[in-house]
Design goal:
Layout lengths: L2 H18 L3 H6 L12 H13 L5 H10 L1
C-alpha cells in the first residue's frame, strides 16, 4: 500500500475514533436530560412545518370549482 494512503487512512481512523468517544466533560453536560427528543433532519422538520401551515390553505382548483358552481 502506498505510504501516503496508509497515513491518510490512519488519520481518518483516528478522527473517527475521536468522534465516537464522548468526552467526559461533554457527557456531564447532558446528564440532566432524561429523555432527549430524537434528532430529526432539518429538511424533514421543514416539510412537516410546511405541511402543517399549508393544510388549510385554499387549493386554487377547489376554490375555482366552488366559484363556478355558484
Amino acid at each position: 500500500m502506498d505510504p501516503q494512503i496508509h497515513s491518510l487512512l490512519t488519520n481518518v481512523s483516528a478522527l473517527l475514533d475521536q468522534n465516537r468517544r464522548p468526552a467526559s466533560r461533554d457527557s456531564k453536560k447532558f446528564e440532566h436530560i432524561s429523555d432527549p427528543e430524537p434528532w430529526e433532519p432539518p429538511f424533514e422538520r421543514w416539510l412537516k412545518l410546511a405541511d402543517h401551515l399549508l393544510r388549510d390553505w385554499p387549493n386554487p382548483r377547489t376554490v375555482r370549482r366552488e366559484h363556478d358552481a355558484q
